[in-house]
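Check these lines:
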Amino acid sequence: MTINEIQEEIIEEFSDFDDWMDKYQLLIDLGSEQRPLPESEKTEQNLIDGCQSRVWLTATMTPEGLLHFEAESDALIVKGIVMLLIRVLSDQTPEDILNADLYFIDRIGLREHLSPTRSNGLLAMLKQMKMYALAFKAKSAQGA
């Protein structure tokens, strides 16, 4: 699936709820489905700067040239937010990740319903994912 197709799916899922308490519950449910990161991945190097809660993010390149993300957080809603980002950006090419317009964040009303610290955390997670994409793109260009 393309990044935009996945975004449309998420917008559709969130449009089923009018009340933001229900949308927060959906985020919490998404986060609770998250597979925990191995303890060996919960390192200072994988910790995202700029998040109030602790968020670890890892990225690996698949043999097909797709970037695969995994993450974990110690906060329920943040877990859901990072799972949304992973759902949209994981298993895409670095090029597609770098060029992605993540309009779903505004369309589902997430940005306007987050506290300033969570909003900063969302931007920090997104920035880190794009930095991984940039690094893997550069690495694969060197190997070519």
